[in-house]
Amino acid sequence: MSDKFAKLRHELAIANRILANEGVIDAFGHVSVRHPDDSGRYFLSRSRSPEVVEPNDILEFDLDSQPVASPTVQLYAERVIHGEIYKARPDVVAVGHHHAPAVMPFCISGDPIVPVFHLGAAMGAIAPFWDSRDEFGDTNLLVVKPAEGASLARTLGKHSMVLMRRHGATVVGSSLRELVFRAIYSCDNARYLSEAKRLGNFSPLTPGEIEMAQAIYQLPNAQSRAWEYWERRLAKRGGMPAGPMSVAAAPDPSLARLREGAGRLAKAAAKKAVAKKAVAKKAVAKPVKPRRGKRK
User: Which position among 22, 54, 78, 135 bears the catalytic label?
Assistant: First the structure.
Protein backbone atom coordinates (compact mmCIF):
# COMPACT_ATOMS: atom_id res chain seq x y z
CA MET A 1 0.00 0.00 0.00
CA SER A 2 1.43 3.37 -0.98
CA ASP A 3 1.98 6.03 1.68
CA LYS A 4 -0.62 8.24 0.00
CA PHE A 5 -3.37 5.68 0.39
CA ALA A 6 -2.26 4.80 3.92
CA LYS A 7 -2.81 8.45 4.90
CA LEU A 8 -6.13 8.53 3.05
CA ARG A 9 -7.33 5.41 4.85
CA HIS A 10 -6.21 6.89 8.15
CA GLU A 11 -8.10 10.14 7.53
CA LEU A 12 -11.22 8.22 6.50
CA ALA A 13 -11.02 6.23 9.74
CA ILE A 14 -10.75 9.51 11.66
CA ALA A 15 -13.78 10.93 9.78
CA ASN A 16 -15.84 7.88 10.81
CA ARG A 17 -14.80 8.27 14.43
CA ILE A 18 -15.33 12.06 14.54
CA LEU A 19 -18.89 11.71 13.25
CA ALA A 20 -19.56 8.98 15.81
CA ASN A 21 -17.98 11.05 18.61
CA GLU A 22 -20.06 14.11 17.67
CA GLY A 23 -23.32 12.14 17.75
CA VAL A 24 -24.01 12.20 14.01
CA ILE A 25 -23.43 8.55 13.14
CA ASP A 26 -24.65 5.59 15.17
CA ALA A 27 -23.63 1.93 14.86
CA PHE A 28 -25.11 1.67 11.36
CA GLY A 29 -23.89 4.78 9.50
CA HIS A 30 -21.00 4.84 7.01
CA VAL A 31 -18.61 7.28 5.29
CA SER A 32 -16.69 6.97 2.02
CA VAL A 33 -14.21 8.95 -0.06
CA ARG A 34 -13.57 8.82 -3.79
CA HIS A 35 -10.25 7.37 -4.99
CA PRO A 36 -7.94 10.37 -5.66
CA ASP A 37 -6.37 8.79 -8.76
CA ASP A 38 -9.33 6.87 -10.18
CA SER A 39 -12.74 8.57 -10.17
CA GLY A 40 -14.34 5.20 -10.93
CA ARG A 41 -13.47 3.86 -7.48
CA TYR A 42 -14.01 4.77 -3.85
CA PHE A 43 -12.87 3.76 -0.36
CA LEU A 44 -15.27 2.53 2.33
CA SER A 45 -14.85 0.53 5.52
CA ARG A 46 -15.90 -3.09 5.90
CA SER A 47 -19.16 -3.50 7.79
CA ARG A 48 -18.24 -2.15 11.20
CA SER A 49 -19.45 0.47 13.67
CA PRO A 50 -17.90 3.80 12.58
CA GLU A 51 -16.67 4.50 16.12
CA VAL A 52 -14.18 1.63 15.90
CA VAL A 53 -13.17 1.77 12.21
CA GLU A 54 -9.41 1.32 11.71
CA PRO A 55 -7.38 2.23 8.60
CA ASN A 56 -6.94 -1.45 7.73
CA ASP A 57 -10.74 -1.84 7.66
CA ILE A 58 -10.92 0.44 4.60
CA LEU A 59 -11.55 -1.39 1.31
CA GLU A 60 -11.64 -0.26 -2.32
CA PHE A 61 -14.80 -0.49 -4.45
CA ASP A 62 -15.80 0.24 -8.04
CA LEU A 63 -18.83 2.43 -8.78
CA ASP A 64 -21.05 -0.65 -9.00
CA SER A 65 -20.08 -1.01 -5.33
CA GLN A 66 -18.23 -4.26 -5.93
CA PRO A 67 -14.99 -4.73 -3.98
CA VAL A 68 -11.86 -4.49 -6.13
CA ALA A 69 -10.25 -7.37 -4.21
CA SER A 70 -12.18 -10.46 -3.11
CA PRO A 71 -13.41 -9.70 0.41
CA THR A 72 -12.85 -11.94 3.41
CA VAL A 73 -15.04 -9.77 5.66
CA GLN A 74 -18.67 -8.63 5.80
CA LEU A 75 -19.47 -5.55 3.67
CA TYR A 76 -22.01 -2.76 4.23
CA ALA A 77 -25.34 -3.74 2.66
CA GLU A 78 -26.09 -0.08 1.77
CA ARG A 79 -22.82 0.65 -0.05
CA VAL A 80 -24.85 1.26 -3.26
CA ILE A 81 -25.75 4.66 -1.75
CA HIS A 82 -22.12 5.65 -2.23
CA GLY A 83 -21.50 4.07 -5.61
CA GLU A 84 -24.67 5.45 -7.22
CA ILE A 85 -24.05 8.98 -5.92
CA TYR A 86 -20.46 8.91 -7.19
CA LYS A 87 -21.83 7.82 -10.59
CA ALA A 88 -24.40 10.61 -10.71
CA ARG A 89 -22.22 13.37 -9.22
CA PRO A 90 -18.65 13.62 -10.60
CA ASP A 91 -18.10 16.65 -8.33
CA VAL A 92 -18.69 14.63 -5.15
CA VAL A 93 -15.56 13.40 -3.35
CA ALA A 94 -17.09 12.12 -0.10
CA VAL A 95 -20.42 10.61 0.96
CA GLY A 96 -21.84 9.98 4.43
CA HIS A 97 -25.05 8.26 5.51
CA HIS A 98 -26.45 8.63 9.04
CA HIS A 99 -29.53 8.40 11.28
CA ALA A 100 -28.78 11.33 13.60
CA PRO A 101 -31.44 12.00 16.26
CA ALA A 102 -31.48 15.67 15.22
CA VAL A 103 -32.74 14.89 11.69
CA MET A 104 -34.97 11.89 12.37
CA PRO A 105 -38.06 13.95 13.36
CA PHE A 106 -37.91 15.58 9.90
CA CYS A 107 -37.46 12.19 8.20
CA ILE A 108 -40.59 10.98 10.01
CA SER A 109 -42.79 14.07 9.64
CA GLY A 110 -41.68 15.10 6.16
CA ASP A 111 -41.21 18.70 7.34
CA PRO A 112 -38.36 20.39 5.44
CA ILE A 113 -35.02 21.22 7.00
CA VAL A 114 -33.91 24.73 6.08
CA PRO A 115 -30.83 26.65 7.27
CA VAL A 116 -31.61 28.88 10.25
CA PHE A 117 -28.14 29.97 11.43
CA HIS A 118 -24.88 30.96 9.78
CA LEU A 119 -23.08 27.57 10.06
CA GLY A 120 -26.30 25.86 9.02
CA ALA A 121 -25.79 27.39 5.56
CA ALA A 122 -23.34 24.53 4.97
CA MET A 123 -26.35 22.30 4.18
CA GLY A 124 -27.50 24.54 1.32
CA ALA A 125 -30.91 26.14 0.85
CA ILE A 126 -32.93 22.95 1.40
CA ALA A 127 -32.62 19.18 1.71
CA PRO A 128 -34.92 17.29 -0.70
CA PHE A 129 -37.04 14.42 0.65
CA TRP A 130 -36.76 10.88 -0.78
CA ASP A 131 -39.61 8.42 -0.24
CA SER A 132 -38.65 4.90 -1.35
CA ARG A 133 -42.35 3.98 -1.70
CA ASP A 134 -42.71 6.26 -4.72
CA GLU A 135 -40.76 3.80 -6.89
CA PHE A 136 -40.43 0.60 -4.84
CA GLY A 137 -43.52 0.31 -2.67
CA ASP A 138 -43.09 -1.27 0.74
CA THR A 139 -39.49 -2.25 1.55
CA ASN A 140 -37.42 -2.81 4.69
CA LEU A 141 -36.33 0.86 4.20
CA LEU A 142 -32.69 -0.09 3.58
CA VAL A 143 -31.07 1.05 0.33
CA VAL A 144 -29.49 -2.19 -0.89
CA LYS A 145 -30.30 -2.39 -4.62
CA PRO A 146 -28.51 -0.35 -7.28
CA ALA A 147 -31.87 0.92 -8.54
CA GLU A 148 -32.70 2.20 -5.05
CA GLY A 149 -29.32 3.92 -4.76
CA ALA A 150 -29.78 5.49 -8.21
CA SER A 151 -33.24 6.74 -7.22
CA LEU A 152 -31.80 8.33 -4.07
CA ALA A 153 -29.04 9.96 -6.13
CA ARG A 154 -31.63 11.43 -8.51
CA THR A 155 -33.54 12.98 -5.61
CA LEU A 156 -30.31 14.37 -4.15
CA GLY A 157 -29.72 16.06 -7.52
CA LYS A 158 -27.30 18.99 -7.15
CA HIS A 159 -28.07 19.42 -3.45
CA SER A 160 -25.66 18.69 -0.60
CA MET A 161 -28.00 16.63 1.55
CA VAL A 162 -31.08 14.45 1.10
CA LEU A 163 -33.56 13.29 3.75
CA MET A 164 -34.81 9.69 3.55
CA ARG A 165 -38.33 8.93 4.74
CA ARG A 166 -38.29 7.21 8.16
CA HIS A 167 -34.65 6.28 7.66
CA GLY A 168 -32.07 9.07 7.94
CA ALA A 169 -30.02 11.38 5.74
CA THR A 170 -27.24 11.22 3.18
CA VAL A 171 -24.74 14.06 2.89
CA VAL A 172 -22.07 14.76 0.27
CA GLY A 173 -18.98 16.96 0.06
CA SER A 174 -16.30 18.09 -2.36
CA SER A 175 -13.76 16.78 0.17
CA LEU A 176 -13.80 14.49 3.18
CA ARG A 177 -13.40 17.44 5.55
CA GLU A 178 -16.21 19.38 3.90
CA LEU A 179 -18.45 16.32 4.28
CA VAL A 180 -17.69 16.08 8.02
CA PHE A 181 -18.21 19.84 8.44
CA ARG A 182 -21.55 19.71 6.59
CA ALA A 183 -22.80 16.58 8.38
CA ILE A 184 -22.12 18.00 11.85
CA TYR A 185 -23.45 21.51 11.25
CA SER A 186 -26.53 20.32 9.36
CA CYS A 187 -27.42 18.26 12.44
CA ASP A 188 -26.85 21.30 14.68
CA ASN A 189 -29.06 23.28 12.32
CA ALA A 190 -31.84 20.66 12.49
CA ARG A 191 -31.73 20.73 16.28
CA TYR A 192 -31.90 24.55 16.41
CA LEU A 193 -34.74 24.54 13.88
CA SER A 194 -36.71 22.09 16.06
CA GLU A 195 -36.15 24.26 19.14
CA ALA A 196 -37.13 27.46 17.29
CA LYS A 197 -40.33 25.78 16.07
CA ARG A 198 -41.24 25.00 19.67
CA LEU A 199 -40.87 28.69 20.48
CA GLY A 200 -43.28 29.39 17.63
CA ASN A 201 -41.30 31.91 15.63
CA PHE A 202 -38.61 31.09 13.08
CA SER A 203 -37.55 31.90 9.54
CA PRO A 204 -34.84 30.50 7.28
CA LEU A 205 -31.76 32.37 6.15
CA THR A 206 -32.31 34.44 3.02
CA PRO A 207 -30.79 33.20 -0.28
CA GLY A 208 -28.22 36.01 -0.04
CA GLU A 209 -27.26 35.03 3.51
CA ILE A 210 -26.88 31.38 2.50
CA GLU A 211 -24.65 32.25 -0.44
CA MET A 212 -22.38 34.59 1.54
CA ALA A 213 -22.13 32.27 4.56
CA GLN A 214 -21.30 29.31 2.31
CA ALA A 215 -18.49 31.29 0.69
CA ILE A 216 -16.82 31.53 4.12
CA TYR A 217 -17.43 27.99 5.35
CA GLN A 218 -16.32 26.39 2.11
CA LEU A 219 -12.83 27.83 2.63
CA PRO A 220 -10.30 25.08 3.46
CA ASN A 221 -9.07 27.09 6.46
CA ALA A 222 -12.55 27.07 8.06
CA GLN A 223 -12.91 23.34 7.51
CA SER A 224 -9.40 22.60 8.80
CA ARG A 225 -10.03 24.68 11.93
CA ALA A 226 -13.20 22.72 12.68
CA TRP A 227 -11.52 19.39 11.83
CA GLU A 228 -8.67 20.15 14.25
CA TYR A 229 -11.21 20.91 17.00
CA TRP A 230 -13.16 17.68 16.45
CA GLU A 231 -9.97 15.65 16.09
CA ARG A 232 -8.64 17.05 19.38
CA ARG A 233 -11.93 16.18 21.12
CA LEU A 234 -11.63 12.64 19.76
CA ALA A 235 -8.00 12.37 20.89
CA LYS A 236 -8.88 13.52 24.42
CA ARG A 237 -11.30 10.61 24.65
CA GLY A 238 -8.58 8.24 23.47
CA GLY A 239 -10.55 7.55 20.31
CA MET A 240 -7.93 8.14 17.61
CA PRO A 241 -7.16 5.19 15.31
CA ALA A 242 -3.60 3.88 15.14
CA GLY A 243 -1.61 5.28 12.25
CA PRO A 244 0.20 8.34 10.89
CA MET A 245 -0.46 11.97 11.84
CA SER A 246 -2.24 11.18 15.10
CA VAL A 247 -3.10 14.32 17.04
CA ALA A 248 -2.57 12.39 20.25
CA ALA A 249 1.03 11.72 19.24
CA ALA A 250 1.72 15.17 17.83
CA PRO A 251 3.98 17.39 19.95
CA ASP A 252 2.21 20.25 21.69
CA PRO A 253 4.28 23.46 21.16
CA SER A 254 3.25 24.88 24.53
CA LEU A 255 4.37 21.73 26.31
CA ALA A 256 7.64 21.81 24.42
CA ARG A 257 8.25 25.38 25.60
CA LEU A 258 7.46 24.40 29.20
CA ARG A 259 9.84 21.47 29.03
CA GLU A 260 12.55 23.68 27.53
CA GLY A 261 12.10 26.24 30.32
CA ALA A 262 12.13 23.53 32.97
CA GLY A 263 15.32 22.14 31.46
CA ARG A 264 17.04 25.53 31.66
CA LEU A 265 15.98 25.94 35.29
CA ALA A 266 17.20 22.45 36.15
CA LYS A 267 20.58 23.16 34.52
CA ALA A 268 20.93 26.44 36.41
CA ALA A 269 20.02 24.75 39.69
CA ALA A 270 22.54 21.96 39.06
CA LYS A 271 25.26 24.50 38.26
CA LYS A 272 24.48 26.39 41.46
CA ALA A 273 24.63 23.18 43.50
CA VAL A 274 28.02 22.28 42.02
CA ALA A 275 29.35 25.74 42.86
CA LYS A 276 28.08 25.42 46.47
CA LYS A 277 29.77 22.06 46.85
CA ALA A 278 33.05 23.48 45.56
CA VAL A 279 32.91 26.29 48.12
CA ALA A 280 32.11 23.84 50.90
CA LYS A 281 35.01 21.60 49.90
CA LYS A 282 37.41 24.54 50.02
CA ALA A 283 36.22 25.46 53.47
CA VAL A 284 36.79 21.91 54.74
CA ALA A 285 40.17 21.52 53.06
CA LYS A 286 41.64 24.80 54.43
CA PRO A 287 42.94 24.27 58.01
CA VAL A 288 41.68 26.74 60.56
CA LYS A 289 44.52 28.15 62.67
CA PRO A 290 43.71 28.71 66.35
CA ARG A 291 43.70 32.33 67.33
CA ARG A 292 46.40 33.18 69.83
CA GLY A 293 45.48 35.56 72.59
CA LYS A 294 47.77 38.26 73.96
CA ARG A 295 49.89 37.42 76.95
CA LYS A 296 48.92 39.16 80.07
Answer: 78
